[in-house]
């Protein structure tokens, strides 16, 4: 039986600003099962990041319900049920890579020896073994982002929330990191929620693609991928890939009819 990780029903979120209300999310219904790789795609301001932040208990919904592992986002946060990867790597320049990755473990008071073992393990997972003593400025942008992913993995949570982690990187680096992320997902069997603006990235990575419309942020389509789990980069030239990409593009276009 499938295990539900995220369940949202009639989820809405309205921000109250000096210029009036901003409807960031409107009546969102979505279920995410354990082990899925789910991408959220849509134009800027469609509520993709807001939805991720609601899952992470960084924003509070104003209507509807959402559960993470069957409990409220707050309870899930307190239980350290997820790791969160932001758009920028956000590494402290005065800390080594190992000490950046270990920061959340320090904060929760994990014993030093256990911290060291956990740091070594996640460095290996993201192919940064041997880079623990380096400082962020000694690493390329792509390596810094991998260190940021390692920090999010340090808790060993089953859920990984990723907010456009590769958006600022050039296409060649991004392709390489997409391949590495798929390999990491295969090895760890984590559930991943991934925000992106890139149709090829969404189609290449995901088992399910959630297409969102501009404000108020609604889900206009949920596309189950028919691609195999093993995905070399050149799968992006296959007819099946292009067909899914076309459906995503159509969903994005249909979403604009709400304007």
List the helices and strands and how they pair.
Elements: E1 4-17, E2 20-33, E3 37-41, H1 48-55, E4 63-68, H2 73-78, E5 82-85, H3 97-107, H4 112-125, H5 141-153, E6 159-163, H6 171-188, E7 191-196, H7 199-205, E8 208-212, E9 219-224, H8 239-255
Parallel strand pairs: 3-7, 3-8, 5-6, 6-7
Antiparallel strand pairs: 1-2, 1-4, 8-9
Helix pairs in contact: 3-4, 3-5, 4-5, 7-8
Task: Sum up the structure in keywords.
Rossmann fold, globular, 2 domains, 259 residues, 9 strands, 36% helix, 8 helices, three-stranded antiparallel sheet, six-stranded mixed sheet, alpha/beta
Largest sheet: 6 strands, mixed
Q: Topology as H/E string?
A: EEEHEHEHHHEHEHEEH
User: Given this structure, which CATH class of the largest domain is correct?
Assistant: Alpha Beta
Indicate the radius of gyration in whole angstroms.
Answer: 18 Å
Please state the second-level CATH architecture of the largest domain: 3-Layer(aba) Sandwich
Question: Uncertain segments of ≥5 residues (pLDDT<50)?
Answer: none
Shape: globular
DSSP, total strands: 9
- Trace the largest sheet across and list its strands: 5-6-7-3-8-9
CATH topology of the largest domain: Rossmann fold
Number of helices: 8
Tally of separate domains:
2
What's the rounded overall pLDDT mean? Answer: 90
Fraction of residues in H or I helices: 25-40%
* Protein structure class: alpha/beta
Q: Tell me the β content.
A: 25-35%
Span between termini: 40 Å
CATH level-4 homologous superfamily of the largest domain = P-loop containing nucleotide triphosphate hydrolases
């Amino acid at each position: 039986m499938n295990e539900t990780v995220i369940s949202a029903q009639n989820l809405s979120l309205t921000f109250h600003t000096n210029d009036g209300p901003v409807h960031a999310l409107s009546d969102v219904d979505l279920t995410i099962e354990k082990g899925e790789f789910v991408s959220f795609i849509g134009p800027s301001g469609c509520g993709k990041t807001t939805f991720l932040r609601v899952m992470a208990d960084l924003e509070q919904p104003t209507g509807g319900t959402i559960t993470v592992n069957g409990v409220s986002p707050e309870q899930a946060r307190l239980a350290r049920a997820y790791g969160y990867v932001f758009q920028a790597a956000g590494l402290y320049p005065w800390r080594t890579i190992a000490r950046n990755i270990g920061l959340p473990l320090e904060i929760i008071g994990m014993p030093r020896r256990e911290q060291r073992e956990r740091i070594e393990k996640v460095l290996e997972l993201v192919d940064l073994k041997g880079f623990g003593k380096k400082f962020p400025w000694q690493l390329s942008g792509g390596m810094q982002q991998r260190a940021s992913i390692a920090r999010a993995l340090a808790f060993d949570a089953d859920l990984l929330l990723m907010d456009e982690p590769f958006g600022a990187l050039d296409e060649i680096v991004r392709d390489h990191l997409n391949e590495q992320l798929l390999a990491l997902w295969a090895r760890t069997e984590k559930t991943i929620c991934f925000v992106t603006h890139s149709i090829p990235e969404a189609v290449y990575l995901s088992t399910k693609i959630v297409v969102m419309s501009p404000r108020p942020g609604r889900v206009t389509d949920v596309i189950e991928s028919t691609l195999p789990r093993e995905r070399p980069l050149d799968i992006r030239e296959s007819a099946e890939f292009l067909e899914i990409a076309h459906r995503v593009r159509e969903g994005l276009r249909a979403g604009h009819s709400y304007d």
